[in-house]
Design brief:
With 360 residues, the protein is α+β, with helices and mostly antiparallel strands. It has two domains: 14-288, no CATH class; 291-353, no CATH class. 35% of the residues lie in helices and 18% in strands. It is built from twelve helices and ten strands. A ten-stranded antiparallel beta sheet has the order 2-3-4-5-1-6-10-9-8-7. The longest helix has 35 residues, at 290-324. The radius of gyration is 22 Å and the shape is globular. It starts with 18 loop residues before the first helix and ends in a 7-residue tail after the last helix.
């Protein structure tokens, strides 16, 4: 395992790059077009032959308003990597510095990943790094948990683009509707009325979950296909997490670098790209705060675990109270110095934030 505290290096100058100018240039010239798997075949394709036209918002003023109305919820990049000339430790050091060492150490998985021969997993955030083969490239994947720990997207985008010379192969942008004003049923109605049409045609839809009698597990409505490089998922997030009464709905756009170039600007202004992905997404405008999402996820998961514990062991706790004589004695017998897996991410994140209500 590689530990970020065992080695020290000089501070990198990656924060000095001008992401904005380069990103806007890419944005004017190329396209983003647009359940989760880690990668797909597009992650291994380091060149794009025919980029499409960029999808923008309604107007410059409207775009600025929508800029922070969504969160980056998944990011895959690939970049040139020659192991004989590039030490994985060098990547680890520079990556750890630009992310303020929030991901901890990096452990060799002793297996490949999606066609790359060697893979490593970071301690926190489910972040994966892989290299070996694939036309001398490396792969870096940050799922939603990993994206949550990025506090400075400008510096991180500059590092990926300028220092690693990478390209984005997958990007997900998410909007959380905690009040359920834009439901999965409304998404179906929008689909029927042509709200997801691309180039004059409706992409293929797909439904998951119980759409007949509606259970507590939640439903998902998908439009588009991953193999085509662009899809959107609308699902009942609160119910998925275990709260049958939660109105929380998530709208999640997933883009892949298949016949399109995903510009770096998506990392700085994700709301614009989610709002511009489909005609029916113009409602996306309110600023998104990641900590709100994680606190709600933590609350639902905690309440769900309490219900599970009560159902499975409530009767035993009652007997233990009678036999042990006090709640303190029962707690002492049962308590473990550990955190349930379901709460591990949110607990770690909120401890890092120190209870702050600021956006990360």
């Amino acid at each position: 395992m590689i530990n970020p505290l065992q080695e020290t290096t000089d501070k990198s100058d990656c924060a000095s790059g001008n992401v904005r100018a380069g990103a806007l240039a890419a944005r004017a010239a190329h396209c983003i077009g647009a359940t989760s798997d880690n990668t797909d075949a597009s992650d291994t394709n380091h060149t794009v032959d025919t980029p499409r036209t960029v999808i923008r918002g309604e107007s410059p003023s409207e775009e600025r308003k929508k800029s922070q109305a969504a969160l980056t919820d998944w990011l895959n990049v690939s970049f040139p990597f020659h192991p004989e000339n590039t030490n994985p430790l060098k990547f680890f050091k520079s990556f750890s510095e630009v992310t303020n060492f929030r991901f901890g150490g990096m452990t060799d998985q002793e297996r490949g990943l999606q066609g790359w021969k060697k893979s490593f997993r970071f301690d926190h955030g489910c972040v994966m790094f892989a290299y070996g083969g694939q036309n001398d490239t490396a792969f870096l994947s940050l799922p939603g948990e990993g994206c949550s720990f990025i506090s400075d997207w400008q510096s991180f985008a500059t590092f990926l683009r300028d220092e690693l010379q990478s390209k984005i192969t997958r990007w997900d942008g998410a909007v959380d509707d905690f009040n359920g004003l834009h439901s999965v049923d409304q998404a179906v109605e929008l689909y029927i009325s042509g709200g997801f049409k691309q180039g004059g045609r409706n992409p293929n839809p797909k439904q998951h979950g119980n759409w007949i009698t509606h259970d507590d597990l939640g439903r998902t409505f998908e439009v588009g296909k991953r193999k085509n490089g662009k899809l959107i998922r609308i699902y009942e997030k609160g119910k998925q997490l275990g709260d049958p009464s939660s109105p929380w709905v998530r709208w999640e756009v997933e883009l892949h670098a298949k016949d399109r170039i995903i510009p770096w600007d998506v990392l700085l202004h994700p709301g614009e790209y989610v709002a511009g992905a489909y005609p029916c997404m113009s409602w996306v405008s309110e600023r998104a705060f990641r900590i709100h999402t994680i606190k709600e996820q933590d609350r639902i998961s905690y309440e769900r675990l309490k219900q599970v514990a009560s159902t499975a062991y409530g009767a035993l706790f009652n007997v233990m109270l009678q036999r042990e004589g006090s709640a303190e004695r029962v707690v002492a017998l049962l308590k473990k110095q550990a955190i349930p897996k379901r709460l591990a991410f949110s607990d770690h994140y909120l401890r890092i934030q120190g209870g702050s209500s600021d956006e990360l």
